């Protein structure tokens, strides 16, 4: 893969030099690097902020109250004997992170959630339905406030960065429903 990407970059640089001047190519590379660093700083700061909030909440009893309420909404998706109380907390934190549109912060909770679900798994060589459901729930991830996208749109001077909220809610809800329906259909078929 590195050969493919290296070849593409080299070919693009050669064509850029042929089509325009070397100073224009250098200016473009410099401007792109600056924009990349600004994007990384914006996303990283937002990620650190929300990770800090979740870390503070996890050291209080607030997180257990929030996770109980969130999990009660989605509990019908999981088998009771396949989910421990710690797994419920990680699943709830993952769902909350995804609802806020900070999927990067949800990653650690999804990994911890899968580890906890694996502890309750009777057949360690195969995923159980709760694990597959959680993976689908995490991947499709319903979003109410697409924080990452709003931050990026703000960074690139969008006149209405929040304009994407309604379309994101609609699309993420549809993808979540299709994902969960697919899990149920395929699980019955291959069980």
**Domain module count:** 1
Question: How large is the radius of gyration?
Answer: 21 Å
Order of helices and strands: HHHHHHHH
Tell me the overall shape.
Answer: elongated
The pLDDT mean sits at 84
Instruction: Provide a count of the helices.
Output: 8
Gap from first CA to last CA: 36 Å
Low-confidence stretches: none
The fraction of residues assigned to DSSP E strands is under 5%
Largest sheet: none
Classify the secondary structure makeup into a structural class: mainly alpha
Helical residue percent? over 70%
By DSSP, the count of extended strands is: 0
Task: Give a quick precis of the structure.
The protein has 191 residues and is mainly alpha-helical. The chain has helices at residues 2-19, 22-58, 62-74, 85-99, 103-120, 129-140, 147-155, 165-190.
How does this structure look, described?
The chain is an all-alpha fold and 191 residues long. It has one domain (42-190). Helices cover 77% and strands 0% of the residues. Helix 3 (62-74) packs across helix 4, helix 4 runs antiparallel to helix 5 (103-120) and helix 5 (103-120) runs antiparallel to helix 6. It is elongated, with a radius of gyration of 21 Å. The model has no long low-confidence stretch (mean pLDDT 84).
List the helices and strands and how they pair.
Elements: H1 2-19, H2 22-58, H3 62-74, H4 85-99, H5 103-120, H6 129-140, H7 147-155, H8 165-190
Question: Which key terms come to mind for this protein?
Answer:
elongated; 191 residues; mainly alpha
């Amino acid at each position: 893969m590195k050969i493919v990407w290296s070849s593409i970059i080299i070919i693009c640089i050669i064509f850029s030099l042929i089509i325009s001047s070397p100073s224009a190519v250098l200016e473009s590379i410099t401007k792109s690097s600056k924009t990349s660093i600004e994007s990384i700083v914006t996303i990283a700061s937002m990620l650190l902020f929300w990770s800090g909030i979740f870390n503070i909440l996890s050291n209080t009893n607030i997180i257990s109250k929030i996770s109980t309420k969130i999990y009660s909404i989605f509990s019908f998706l999981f088998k009771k004997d396949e989910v421990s109380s710690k797994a419920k907390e990680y699943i709830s934190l993952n769902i909350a992170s995804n609802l806020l549109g900070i999927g990067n912060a949800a990653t650690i909770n999804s990994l911890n959630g899968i580890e906890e679900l694996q502890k309750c798994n009777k057949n360690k060589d195969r995923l159980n339905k709760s694990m597959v459901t959680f993976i689908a729930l995490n991947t499709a991830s319903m979003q109410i406030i697409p924080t990452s996208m709003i931050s990026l749109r703000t960074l690139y001077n969008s006149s209405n960065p929040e304009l994407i909220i309604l379309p994101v809610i609609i699309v993420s809800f549809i993808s979540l429903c299709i994902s969960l329906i697919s899990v149920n259909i395929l699980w019955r078929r291959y069980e």
